[in-house]
Amino acid sequence: MLFSWLLVIASGVSGCLGNVFLKKSRLVATDPGFFTTFISPWFIVGLVFLAANLLLFTKALDKLPLSAAVPVSSGVVFVSVAFLSNLFLGESLTTNQWIASSLIVAGVVIMSR
User: Fold this and answer.
1) Tens digit of pLDDT for each residue in 68-90?
2) Maximum distance among all alpha carbons in the chain?
3) SS3 readout for 24-36
4) Could you tell me the sign of the dihedral formed by the alpha carbons of 34, 36, 38, 43, in that order?
5) Most C-beta atoms within 10 A of its C-beta, which of 17, 55, 62, 74?
6) Closest by alpha carbon to 84, among 13, 29, 26?
7) What region, left, alpha or beta, does residue 92 occupy, with left being phi > 0 and alpha being psi -120 to 50 degrees?
8) Euclidean distance between CA atoms 91 and 94, whole angstroms
9) Which has the closest alpha carbon to 56: 113, 21, 99, 7?
10) What pLDDT is recorded for position 113?
């Protein structure tokens, strides 16, 4: 069961990285065209992480109830996106985001029990 929870956390981290790479693909884009998005290395890496997110999450569902796994995975994504976008993309991390992240973590802990 512990392994399944680790898969959920890994899934959330993978989903976060996928989203960060998608955002990076838009920040470095020299041409805002739709087709150039698909050939951006940042976009492709983002898709790989998002695909890994789905695979890891699906495997975790072998042992975990959906009603517990989704909030935990989503919580990991929400919190890690806030911190990684601050760290790697230079986005601001406000007091409200700190408070909200703390509440999300508390909710995830309660939900997973």
Assistant:
1) 899 899 989 989 999 999 999 99
2) 47
3) HHHHCCCCCCHHH
4) negative
5) 17
6) 13
7) beta
8) 10
9) 7
10) 73
